[in-house]
Amino acid sequence: MNLYEPMKDEDRPFFSSKMLACPLNGHFISFQLVDEFGDGKPYAGLAYTLQDSAEQRYTGRLNADGFAKIENCYRGPVVLMMDSKYQGGADTWYEKIVDRKSYPLPITELQVRAEQTRFFHKDGSPREHNPALKSGDEFIQVEVRDLVKHSAHLPPPIIDRKYPPEDILIRALNELRFSPAPVATFGVGLLSNRHTLLQVRPLRAFRPMLSTDNQFCALNLYQLAIMANLSYCDFGQHPAKDPVDRVSFPLDPSVGHFFGEALSNYRESWKVDNAQSPNHRYYPLYEEVPYSKRFEILPFDPTLYEQNKPGEEQEHPANLHFFDDTSDSWLSAKSTQAFITHHDEVILISVRGTLELADWWRDVDAAQVPFEEGQGKVHRGFYEAYKALKSFIQRYLFRFYVGQKIIISGHSLGGAIALLLAEALRNATDNNYDVLLYTYGAPRTGDATFVAAAEPLAHHRAVNNNDMIPSVPAPWMNARRSIWIPGFKAMFITNPVLGALIFVAGLVRVGGAPYQHHGTLHHFMLVPFNQKEMSSILWRPGCDS
After folding, report:
1. Average pLDDT over residues 440-462
2. pTM, whole model, 2 decimals?
3. How far lies 256's CA from each of 12, 158, 184, 316, 382, in Å?
């Protein structure tokens, strides 16, 4: 099915291989930008550039209805470009991300306007029957990325469009050029002597709703539990290493797909676990926001960012947002995994819990060591995991922290690491970080001195029923692997009695402060209503009820 009407007689010689046509002027080009409600006012005053095969450029601004008309121009196709940079004034957040030193975004005025428009359909599917259709000869559904030069920071056009731009017009324009250089490398082709209506897809995204209040919030408890679960997934970038010109996030579920593909494309993702099926879903609660206020996955564009070019120190989304020091040797104790992302109000960090053998080796290393970033002593295995993650988090905050709330979550071992990270950031001298922590099934991490010093840290600690992980290490423990492991071996190989004594000596704390829990406990208690019905009550031990 042809998208355009048959070519008019006066235009046929221009495309004929038998007759060369002189690019005579005396023709017109008119077009209008509208949103999905048929309104052109959101695009009023936008600067535009048109260029034809004779390399004539026509510039101007759209009128109050998003309309423009150029008289007395050359016949044939032209390319429309709307690449004028954002000039400021709409929102201070745009100014921050346009001017930041690391990964400044090439945001255009067109992008800012599109972010303020809304979808006609609630699911974000394109509207086909725009009320402004009757005023145009041609109808095109465009994305912002179609009209601007740099688009790596914009969502890929994965939505099927019934009336997409025809790239044949750009190819024809370049074939008709007088110079060897192409007329245009981006833009939308238009035909002369026709009024073209361009429906611009809104730039909207979803982001998980989070409260920045330090008081306990059931919404945060639910949402951050899902984020903690997501931390067990891979980042899902393709290619995972050494990308050349572009990256994608096809793996679902994965951290990259969740933030960089689904939510940025206005899709409510529900997969946050590899074990999920259509019958076993989590439903995060989302809020709709302008695209630039989503949880950001940084762009990859070697033509724009020097650090994206291939090499030993190459940066790309996977190594900027995702930390994974997993080693092939489980005795190496390298198995920390976490992700970090941000928007204008929140920096979100989530740390993975115990999953691999190396995690268990780290869990049992419960010797108390000084907490260099604060006071007291902490679990050595957890502290080593935090120190592996420390510089990764610091580099990200140095680049993208502009006063946001830092919200951290972690499950099991991840909760212990998250506690150390949160307290270290709270004590940081380079910034006055505002930190909020939610942990799930976390073990004891520090001694009484550490817990007392960390009392100002806002920490909500969830425990599910009779989960045994929060009961370790015991308050009386100071498990030193260098002692209890030889004692354990001796119990079965040389001297059982002496081995048992050495084993116990390697577990028991002599002097110092006991291990304690930090944070406000929120406990899920199972409640049977009858033989078939079981539910849970969330309560805080010690509360009035």
Report:
1. 96
2. 0.88
3. 49, 16, 32, 12, 26
